[in-house]
């Protein structure tokens, strides 16, 4: 009979879903209670108590499972919301970096436009000066070699080749 009681106890253990520490305490309490019941000869009432405890533990185990499922769902929801918050934060940071880069590029472009348009007046004056210098140089060269060119042309026109 003692062996049947232990088998029943082992089956009731399968129904419970408590942690190892709590399971060990319950196990020790049941064994202590079993020893007391054996000593006083009240085994039948103890078996009845074990049956009622097992059915209560089964319902308690279901409640514990439901509570654990709810807790797990809360953890998953918290992880999802943290992930979504991090994705939103990353998106906001990326948008901020893009805006800063765009502003930097726009500033550089405006500086280049201002530099090229601001120098356009100076460039025009420089080009006019260079053009005047080249015209003056060509005029002096033409004046210097014009007598030689005239002599060469006259020689070519007046000389007859056979």
UniProtKB/TrEMBL annotation:
Single GO MF descriptor: ATP hydrolysis activity
Gene3D superfamilies assigned to the protein according to its UniProt record, in alphabetical order: 1.20.5.2950
Pfam families per record: V-ATPase_G (PF03179)
Keywords, in A-Z order: Coiled coil, Hydrogen ion transport, Ion transport, Transport
Record-stated family: Belongs to the V-ATPase G subunit family.
Function: Catalytic subunit of the peripheral V1 complex of vacuolar ATPase (V-ATPase). V-ATPase is responsible for acidifying a variety of intracellular compartments in eukaryotic cells. Subunit of the V1 complex of vacuolar(H+)-ATPase (V-ATPase), a multisubunit enzyme composed of a peripheral complex (V1) that hydrolyzes ATP and a membrane integral complex (V0) that translocates protons. V-ATPase is responsible for acidifying and maintaining the pH of intracellular compartments and in some cell types, is targeted to the plasma membrane, where it is responsible for acidifying the extracellular environment.
Protein name, as recorded: V-type proton ATPase subunit G
